[in-house]
Protein 1
Amino acid sequence: MDSLQQKPSLTCANCGSVNVSISHVRSAFWQDDRLVVVEDIPALVCGACAEQFYDDTTVVGLDLLRGEGFPAEKARTALNVPVFSFGDRAAAKSGP
Ligand SMILES: [Zn+2]
């Protein structure tokens, strides 16, 4: 079989479905002890298994952002993020 023709590779890496569409998502990244959120990431989302993945261009773009250290002055806005400890939950559960 000659399948060297380049197709747009919109195939799910997880289940192989071609029911993949582009959706703009928001994702969180850890930069050392700092949590940053990136919005409007063009992600490929599988309609069959809901797997979310990025194409090479997007991965490179995210790597560049990470390489810049997510400079605060470039942030569009900031979020207050509540932080929970799973240990607190376990402690609260004690007793009948
Ligand atoms: Zn899939």
Protein 2
Amino acid sequence: MTKIIWMTDPHFQNEGMVGDLNPRTRLKAAIDHMNTHHANADFMVLTGDLVGDDIEGDYTLLATYLAQSKIPVYPLVGNNDDRAGFRAHLSLPDGTMDDFIQYSIDTGEAQFLCLDTHMIGSHAGQFCAARQAWLTDKLSSDKPTYIFMHHPPMDLHLPPQDAIKLQEGDTFLDLIHGNVQHLFIGHVHRLTCGTVRGTPFATLGALSFQAPAPRPVWDWDSFVPAHEAPHYGVLYVENGNTTLQHTQFCAYDVGIES
Ligand SMILES: [Fe+2]
């Protein structure tokens, strides 16, 4: 059995607030909760949007927070990340692509592919030919395959988030069709689950702010975070079966400062 803690979108800043949220308080609460209750997990995956605008300062302090984890941490890039800052401060597994933060975690029973969907200068995602070729090679494995990624490759009936999805989504879905057990996706700051061309997927609420439901209608100019508590995922993979538990690690008002 493989037990994985799945967290996403901490939007960590070494100082200041994200709206009325202190992202340092939230990340510490999540890691403390994980260390207390899930230190027996095999590893933690963090599916992107790790930092704010101060690339050097944010990654420097973020690394010290992640170092408090009792289990290995595997970070991915999101639209708000920076590959050079990421590599300078966070450790990555052997075999990570040279030009992209894309790598695999191999266990006895499965491979977990951590993809790089970052597109420089855009909030939307990109999955270019080089990243596609790497994935094609990995999909030739006989092991069951699970994918962690930041950008969803399809619409989720969440109009603001759908506008910044993975641009090469159709190509990506053609590539993985029939070859992947489950997709685990960040970016949307909201729980959804379902299937896409037969492949199960899940998105997760953020460690930081939560996106509201799509009704009443909102857009990025009128965006106000939902007053919903954050959570992380506890994922069990065993004999080809998958269970994802959503775990609230603190109350909504933890880290909210006026
Ligand atoms: Fe995000």
Protein 3
Amino acid sequence: MKAVILSGPEQISVEEVDTPTVQFPTDAIVKVSHSAVCGADLLPFHGHTPGFEFGMIPGHEFVGEVVEVGSEVDGISVGDRVVNTSMTSCGTCSECAAERWTQCTTRSLFGYSGVYPKLDGGQAEYVRVPNAARSLLALPEEVSSEDALFLADILPTGYAGVDNAGVTEGDLLVVQGAGPVGLMAVIVALSRGARVVVVDGVDARRELATELGATAITPQEARDYIDTLTDGVGADCVIEASGSIPALKDALHLARPQGIISVIGAHFENDFPLDNGVMFEKELTLKFNIGNPFKTRELLLEAIRRGELKPGRVLTHVLPADDAVEAYTKFDNKEFTKVALTY
Ligand SMILES: [Zn+2]
Ligand SMILES: [Zn+2]
């Protein structure tokens, strides 16, 4: 089969590899139609993931058709059109029993290794899906694959950022970073009737945020803009979706007293100079969130089905898998806001 292979830092190629087969009775094999490139794929792409095993297939956001199921797979059948959860979960460990599925003791992230046990991803014609009854969600006909793709990872992540910050109608929310994850937070917050100000340095991303219904400004404008808008009080909530240290520092100043800073950008720094004075004086809450597709995918699927959420609007480019090099390069340099490959 045809697969995207990450063979070394910034070395992407499309190659012929063996087609995966069922290895455990709880596995399924999915014939992929669409798989997205995620910002998290850029970390191993740049060689920034400690212990990552090069030579594997990336991709933790995919939609396709089930072509084979193991003997113990319940609820998912051959012929179903499905979307995955970015991480696998076993359903039986102590973390799963406590419904902390993203912290499952045997979790793997599709297309990753090093941080998690190795599991080939979905940027390929076929992908093996462990614990398929949990790792796959069957899709109704009326939901497009372009919308469904976002249920794998970044729509649940955006939702977690908004929901864990308790955003409600009329709240003023600042979203730092209008990459795909930040934009998912934007569409969820707007669907709740929040007022959303997006902060990003890239013109095309600000334009897309504006089209979605947010106000978009540059990082340089952020502090003065929010000060003026709120008489110096600050925003009810700040969602840090860029994964950058300057943004996280700025967030403390953009939030109002007793405000919430909800982080959905990926951070891997071992140290951060947190301004405890500001944190204490303003009684701020700082939360970090990993999206939990297994927990929220059904309610998000329903919201898509009802037309309340249209995450596919963020998918700016869809390319054949043969153009994977272009997809990675242009996504990395922010020419593509969100890109999917087709097979
Ligand atoms: Zn991702
Ligand atoms: Zn588990």
Protein 4
Amino acid sequence: MSSESTDMENNFLSGPLPWHGAQWQPLVQRMQAGLLSHALLLKGVPGVGKGYFARALATRVLCHQNSGEYACGHCKSCELVKAETHPDLLVVQPEAAGKPVKIDQIRQVNEFARKTAQQGGRRVILINPAEAMNVHAANALLKSLEEPGGDTLFILVSARSGDMLPTIRSRCQTVSFTVPDKAQAKAWLSDHIADPLVVDQLLSLSSGSPMTARAMFDNDTLAVRGRLYNAIPELFRGNLTPVEMAKEWHTGNLVELLAWMGSWLDDAVKLKLAADESCVRNRDLMRMLDYLAKKVEAADLLVLRDKIMLQRQQLLEGANLNSQMLMEGVFSDYLELVM
Ligand SMILES: [Zn+2]
């Protein structure tokens, strides 16, 4: 699943999210005029709904109703999408987050691209995240991208399109996504989250990415983050050892834990150098941030931040790290900062 997957992706999507209008309308107009490119690359930062957009667009393209901005929701094709059994839609993703898209999966894509559409319309192949294709898989895809069957549409989704083969990128029409303006993101989140303070806090923590903010809310992330935050002073006071802390935390979502612990150090550096609260992301945690900013040298904060973010990146790339050892190391390093 992609980093921005949510439960919403399994439901029927007839149209895009409120902040996607500028990307959606030109594509639908081109489709209706028969001018849609055969390969699209949806690129941009994580958490802004590219995966959502890709599914909504696939549904719209497959819908038997040609007029109208959105999928009709009741034709045979829309019913098949709802049931997740549409024979002309192929969704390709890694077997698990952080794993590659394999060449065997792309061989299936190539076979699929050669067939005729069973529902009499187009065929759509959706690859997300596209940068997960290893070099063999990407090379295998090239041929289909160069000589697509008549009505095949490729939709590639990527938050790290720079990691893709340039030959793949150059064969796609690029559609770029950025974080929506704050008012739009807030309005959308407010439909799901009653407390406006929580909405603000989640948007700040997710750097303005609404889908990430929503996933954080659904996973009760703020409560878990609060528990970790409250445990750190116990570590600093010696009431908990790094080993005990690691025992408690190593089974959690380590990518998320490391992101928080890295961002706290990042904020402490900003406070130290700029002495300005407005650039701090974790504004609800000022006590610890102030403490770190006063107590620790900026260089030491930065070294540890980089180390933690590198470990996080390794996890994202599927590195097989011993979670207990990893977290023991991180908590030991944190403790060492204030010793
Ligand atoms: Zn329809």
